[in-house]
Write a structure and sequence with these properties.
By secondary structure, the chain is an alpha+beta fold. It has 2 domains: about 1-80 and about 150-180, no CATH class; about 90-145 and about 180-285, no CATH class. It has helices at about 15-25, 95-105, 155-165, 180-200, 210-220, 270-275, 285-295; strands at about 5, 60-65, 75-80, 110-115, 120-130, 140-145, 150, 180, 205-210, 225-230, 240-250, 255-265. The protein has a 7-stranded mixed sheet with strand order 4-5-6-9-11-12-10, sandwiched between helices. Strands 1-2-3 form a 3-stranded antiparallel sheet, with helices on one face. The two termini are about 40 Å apart.
Length: about 300
């Protein structure tokens, strides 16, 4: 329970001229100039009791406040992959700059969007090292994915956005939406393994950009221990890389800034092993849960 922490890139309390222009034109401040906020995933067909759309434009929700287990306060959780494209003061995309300096130092690289991988699906991005200025020869490459979180009870999130655009102070309210973090991780982890094996066989890295809160859940669900390579070289046998980022609030700007916090590595086989090594649930727990349903009459007879 909370509210949208970034609407079209800015906290709801930020009413600066820049924020107003972006919101009035439904722009994504993290993509190229003039690019609209996602017109597919950020629009809704939810309606009120009279059949009128709650919103006729994008929600603009980049992140939402959420209190994660083990945290003492609500933190902004990234729910849009484009949020990872924030630039620094020099106009460089922060995560791309980190990846270049960490894994492709002193090399000429380009990053291209949405490359098909056949039966393995699609890559969000591919990093390509090229030999000469005309970029006609690729000499190395790596795979790159962005993993955002996802919301549940989306209607309440849309109502939050509607209230904001109706001029209400949403920071004084608490909207009953949730985060589908575990489902997001369980779905993504299969891709991490699948694509991880593909690029392992090709001798290339598979790099995943993920927020710290979601990374904690990934490690917690599977009890996997990864190697911290933030300040060290990546082991040659490790090709599955996690660039862990966070959002830090800057009061002087009244904005959240994306920062790279840590970098970890492992292998797809170690992640897969962590899944298979999860401890079993005692049989008594399962049987007791079934009996509880029977006693309450919550069952079907085929």
């Amino acid at each position: 329970m909370g509210y949208i922490s970034e609407i079209f890139g800015f906290p709801p309390t930020n009413k600066s001229k820049e924020a107003q222009i972006v919101r009035q034109n439904y722009l994504c401040p993290f993509q190229a100039n003039g690019i609209k906020c996602d017109p597919v995933n950020k629009k809704t067909n939810l309606a009120d009791k009279n059949g009128r759309l709650l919103l006729t434009h994008q929600t603009g929700a980049c992140s939402v406040l959420h209190k994660f287990r083990g945290h003492t306060r609500e933190v902004p959780a990234i729910i849009c992959p484009y949020r990872f494209l924030e630039k620094d003061i020099d106009g460089k995309i922060i995560v791309f700059k980190f990846i270049k300096e960490k894994f492709f130092a002193n090399k000429n690289i380009v990053i291209v969007k949405e490359i098909g991988l056949g039966v393995y699906g699609r890559a969000d991005w591919m990093i390509a090292e090229y030999k000469n200025e005309n970029k006609k020869e690729i000499i190395d490459y790596a795979h790159l994915e962005f993993q955002a979180d996802a919301t549940t009870q989306t209607r309440n999130l849309v109502l939050c956005a509607k209230d904001f655009f109706d001029g209400k102070d949403i920071t004084k309210e608490s909207y009953e939406y949730g985060l589908n973090s575990k489902a997001s991780i369980k779905g993504a982890s299969l891709q991490m393994i699948d694509k991880g094996y593909l690029f392992q066989k090709l001798g290339k890295k598979s790099i995943w950009v993920i927020q710290d809160t979601l990374f904690e859940i990934l490690c917690g669900i599977y009890n996997i221990k990864m190697k911290d390579i933030t300040k060290t070289e990546c082991p040659i046998e490790h090709n599955l890389i996690f660039v862990v980022v966070g959002l830090e609030y800057k009061p002087q700007l009244n904005r959240y800034n994306l920062v790279v916090k840590k970098c970890f590595s492992t292998t797809p086989s170690l992640l897969q092993k962590a899944m298979s090594d999860k401890p079993i649930i005692p049989e008594k727990v399962i049987k007791d849960s079934i009996l509880s349903k029977l006693e309450s009459g919550d069952y079907f007879i085929p």
